[in-house]
Specification:
The complex is a heterodimer. By secondary structure, chain A is an all-beta fold. Chain A is built from no helices and eleven strands. In chain A, strands 2, 4, 5, 6, 9, 10 and 11 form a seven-stranded mixed β-sheet that branches. A four-stranded antiparallel β-sheet of chain A has the order 1-3-8-7, with no helix packed on it. In chain A, a hairpin with a 5-residue loop joins β7 and β8 (74-78). The chains are: A mainly beta, B mainly beta. Chain A binds chain B through residues 2, 31, 33, 35, 41-43, 45, 48, 50, 55-56, 88, 90, 92, 94, 96-97, 101-102, 104-107, 109-110, 112, and chain B through 31, 33, 35, 37, 43-45, 47, 50, 52, 91, 93, 95, 97-98, 100-111.
Chain lengths: 116, 118
């Protein structure tokens, strides 16, 4: 168990809809990263938050947004969904700065989104 | 630019064969960390190992071993006497400090799918 919790595990929705994916990082971790993994593809970095602030953006569509709350949980919002958004969405956490430089990312089990 | 290359898209071996998964990275930093992750068919990503840029000692953990060579910017992963349960996608990753964000960037390779046949 990585200590990172993602909900829901599975999500099936229709095109044009909006969904919210939730992530609770490991206790003590300040950084949250979101990744998208489409079928048989690698991990595409979407966005990184540290202690409530956005720190880096990757290949995140304008229809997608995220935030990290004061309790450090994070949500990824996907709107105007298209068939191509069907993927496994992972959240990962790490301590962030300082001596935790060498910390690996610990991943949640992912949310599998299916857009029909 | 920082980059991680896993040139082997898919490898198939017969059980008990040894197999090496290649990882080549690019970075301008002198301080960085390298990682391997396993993604079994169930989908979760499991952390396997980390190595810092100052430690070139090879590491062995059971049937797994890692060979880090700074001279060739490679961090290869070998599974000895492979088993069916080793079938998974394996990702190599690089982390380094980000000058712009003040935290750490993690760059993943595209993964190598390993199929171990009984």
């Amino acid at each position: 168990d990585s200590g990172v919790t993602q909900t829901p595990k599975h999500l099936i929705t229709a095109t044009g809809q909006r969904v919210t994916l939730r992530c609770s990082p490991r206790s003590g971790d300040l950084s949250v990263y979101w990744y998208q993994q489409s079928l048989d593809q690698g991990l595409q970095f979407l966005i990184h938050y540290y202690n409530g602030e956005e720190r880096a953006k990757g290949n995140i569509l304008e229809r997608f947004s995220a935030q990290q709350f004061p309790d450090l949980h994070s949500e990824l919002n996907l709107s105007s969904l298209e068939l191509g958004d069907s993927a496994l969405y992972f959240c990962a956490s790490s301590p962030g700065r300082g001596s935790a430089y060498n910390s690996p990312l610990h991943f949640g089990n992912g949310t599998r989104l299916t857009v029909t | 630019a920082q980059k991680v290359t896993q040139a082997q898209t898919e490898i198939s071996v017969v059980e008990k064969e040894d197999v090496t998964l290649d990882c080549v990275y690019e970075t301008r930093d002198t301080t960085y960390y390298l990682f391997w992750y396993k993604q079994p068919p169930s989908g979760e990503l499991v952390f396997l190992i980390r190595r810092n840029s100052f430690d070139e000692q090879n590491e062995i953990s059971g049937r797994y071993s890692w060979n880090f060579q700074k001279s060739t910017s490679s961090f290869n992963f070998t599974i000895t006497a492979s088993q069916v349960v080793d079938s998974a996608v394996y990702f190599c990753a690089l982390s380094e400090a980000s000058a712009t964000s003040g935290t750490y960037k993690y760059i993943f390779g595209t993964g190598t799918r390993l199929k171990v046949l009984a």
